[in-house]
């Protein structure tokens, strides 16, 4: 048995080393400083925060009850246009993104410069927000559904292409090697080797992106890119809050329906 003196002289256990504790303190200090700097830069006005609940209650009172007579005259057509924008934009994105995803997959195209160029296209698409794309295409083609459709398509290229390219790179090499040894051409290797392996991922990506695009296309109209967002912007500018309530309910309903549709299709397709 160790003597009491030996026990007293045993070094104390610490979870972190002095260097680790110093690094954690420095990171915490940097986070706190960033939060303080952010709060100071956005110029939060305390009076507005105190008054916010009262303003919210007043706004909700103006919205209630919703005037459902607006739905057949203006809201329904704008809602259908939103669905068309999301659907056509997703379809265009699939057409443009799949070749880029193939070029980004190193096991299909073993050329580093080509892979990097394809990944640059995918990163460029994802780095620009859909509203920015919409503003760009509104400036080129004018306000309307065409600008919204192209904004959805170009925004979705990066998402679809990246996930599809990663699915191709994760494909098992065994079937492809067997087809190559049998002398199968590139198209046959893609059709019978890669496609059966990536088909579940492809449908998941397509359905998930369409679900996202339904949500995004609902707000593109705020910058003039068509859809129900334009009806929402017009109603807010005219202070027609009962009509705004109908539009918000319609947006919520179409998002829920899109979620249900995607779930049911995934269960049957995948």
Describe this protein's structure.
The longest helix has 35 residues, at 70-104. The model has no long low-confidence stretch (mean pLDDT 83). The chain is an all-alpha fold. The protein is extended. It contains 11 helices and no strands. 81% of the residues lie in helices and 0% in strands. The protein folds into 2 domains: 13-61; 69-269, MetI-like (MetI-like fold). Helix 4 (70-104) packs across helix 11 (241-269).
Helices and strands in order:
Elements: H1 4-9, H2 18-41, H3 46-63, H4 70-104, H5 112-127, H6 130-141, H7 145-169, H8 173-181, H9 186-220, H10 228-237, H11 241-269
Helix pairs in contact: 4-5, 4-7, 4-9, 4-10, 4-11, 5-7, 6-7, 7-9, 8-9, 9-11, 10-11
Key terms for this structure?
extended; 0% strand; mainly alpha; 11 helices; 270 residues; MetI-like fold; 2 domains
